[in-house]
Write a structure and sequence with these properties.
Elements: H1 9-24, H2 37-43, E1 51-56, H3 62-75, E2 86-91, H4 96-108, H5 112-117, H6 122-137, E3 140-143, H7 150-163, E4 166-172, H8 185-203, E5 207-212, H9 216-219, H10 234-238, E6 241-246, E7 255-256, E8 262-263, E9 268-278, E10 284-291, E11 296-299, E12 301-302, E13 308-309
Parallel strand pairs: 1-5, 1-6, 2-3, 2-4, 4-5
Antiparallel strand pairs: 6-9, 7-8, 9-10, 10-11, 12-13
Helix pairs in contact: 3-4, 4-6, 7-8
Length: 310
């Protein structure tokens, strides 16, 4: 007996032909736009059944970028026809309340430090109230149960996707997921990575998995590469797309901190988003602007010559 996952190639060829016809007519295909124009132009959006790994060293802004993408998708942006699509966020490090505060300040463009210190203006308070109303209506689900095993995470995702129309799953972050304690951590990460990819295929949604990078790129003062993915080469193999965030090293505008990371003096900093792997598309570099006080990424500005500027 042939399982329901096995089918003759004819059906797949028909689907591929329809997708290519849409592309040739320059119609939007199945990709969900992230809201970051240069990234979307290279990846054609986030695609069902694909696993995207978003990696960076600590404090560079990988959680912020993932949350910005989820916000864009669930609050509706013109690139997606204004549709509000469901996002499921597994936050293993940050509580739901803390995550919601970041999303509120990000959407309202209010400095979180001012909120914590109680120094918000009437205009900022109004902006926060407006953002709260918008986020309450957004189809965003957050699971902040903390340390969990990959089998539990998949079961939760399956259950939530059955009850709700979910278009994106975000997992923050891979190294915090528990595995089989009887094997090495590298083998655990390999199994977790494989199961993440299997989850994307089973639920037919794009999955963004955040991951840490090792310290080699900092020690060697270079851009990160695929070999810097922490604890397992299988992450590189399983991922359909690998994105890496890094601060560019610009002469005279940065300095090293004690950990070897680059710290820019401005509240707005340029971040390089490296597309290190893309199974069905090109690799390359996208420039983004990071407004750290709002934990908000923006598209890079363009000069008169059409080149990205900051």
């Amino acid at each position: 007996m042939i399982s329901d996952t096995t089918a003759h190639i004819a059906g797949a060829v028909d689907q591929a032909s329809m997708m290519m016809a849409k592309m040739m007519r320059q119609e939007n295909t199945e990709g969900i736009m992230s809201g970051f124009k240069d990234l979307d132009s290279m990846t054609y959006g986030l695609h069902p059944q694909e696993m995207t790994v978003l990696a960076a060293r600590p404090s560079v802004g990988k959680t912020s970028l993932a949350m910005n993408i989820a916000e864009n998708i669930s609050c509706g942006i013109p690139a997606n026809g204004g549709r509000k699509m469901g996002s499921l966020i597994f936050s293993l490090e940050m509580g739901a309340e803390q995550l919601a505060m970041r999303l509120l300040c990000c959407r309202a463009r209010v400095d979180m430090r001012r909120v914590r210190e109680g120094f918000t203006s009437k205009e900022e308070q109004t902006a926060l109230m407006t953002a709260a109303g918008e986020l309450k209506k957004a189809p965003i689900w957050i699971d902040d149960s903390g340390s969990t095993k990959i089998t539990e995470l998949r079961a939760k995702a399956r259950r939530i996707c059955q009850k709700n129309d979910i278009s994106l799953i975000v997992v923050d972050y891979l190294q915090l997921i528990g595995g089989d304690g009887s094997v090495s951590r590298e083998n655990q990460i390999a199994d977790i990575s494989r199961q993440m990819k299997a989850m994307a295929k089973e639920l037919k949604v794009p999955v963004i998995v955040l991951s840490q990078l090792n310290r080699e790129s900092e020690k060697e003062r270079r851009d990160p590469r695929l070999s810097d993915l922490r604890e397992s080469g299988s992450i590189e193999q399983d991922a359909d797309v690998v994105l890496m965030l890094t601060r560019p090293r610009e002469k005279g505008s940065d300095r090293d901190d004690d950990d070897g990371e680059i710290v820019l003096p401005s509240d707005v900093e340029r971040i390089k988003l490296i597309i290190a792997k893309q199974r069905n598309g090109p690799v390359g570099i996208v420039d983004l602007m990071f407004q750290r006080r709002y934990t908000r990424y923006e598209n890079a500005l363009r000069g008169e010559d059409g080149m990205n500027t900051i």
